[in-house]
């Protein structure tokens, strides 16, 4: 393995992290923006109003997105192990 292989593994790893965590982060972002918009419109500044819905959406999202996360991580590990066995990409 050389520097090019290391770069390929790192880039695949970063993309895997983005694909795995991206949907959950996107859900939290959308809920956070919706709650902030609601608070700005109604001038209700309750701190628990921001945390409870985000936590609920993240928990439901984790249950829904876990199979996708598994597939993405499995694909990365298969590619890396194949690179190790063959000695390159």
Automatic annotation (TrEMBL):
Transmembrane segments: 12-39, 51-73
Compartment(s) where it occurs, according to its Swiss-Prot or TrEMBL record: Cell membrane
Keywords, in A-Z order: Cell membrane, Cell projection, Cilium, Flagellum, Membrane, Transmembrane, Transmembrane helix
GO cellular component, one term: plasma membrane
InterPro entries assigned to the protein according to its UniProt record, in alphabetical order: Bac_export_3 (IPR002191)
Family, similarity comment: Belongs to the FliQ/MopD/SpaQ family.
Protein name (record): Flagellar biosynthesis protein FliQ
Organism: Seohaeicola zhoushanensis
């Amino acid at each position: 393995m050389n520097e090019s292989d290391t770069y390929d593994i790192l880039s695949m790893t970063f993309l895997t992290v983005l694909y795995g965590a991206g949907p959950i982060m996107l859900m939290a972002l959308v809920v956070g923006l919706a709650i902030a918009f609601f608070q700005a419109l109604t001038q209700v500044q309750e701190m628990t109003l921001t945390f409870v819905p985000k936590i609920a959406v993240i928990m439901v999202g984790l249950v829904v997105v876990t199979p996708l996360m598994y597939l993405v991580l499995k694909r990365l590990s298969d590619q890396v192990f194949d690179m190790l066995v063959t000695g390159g990409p």
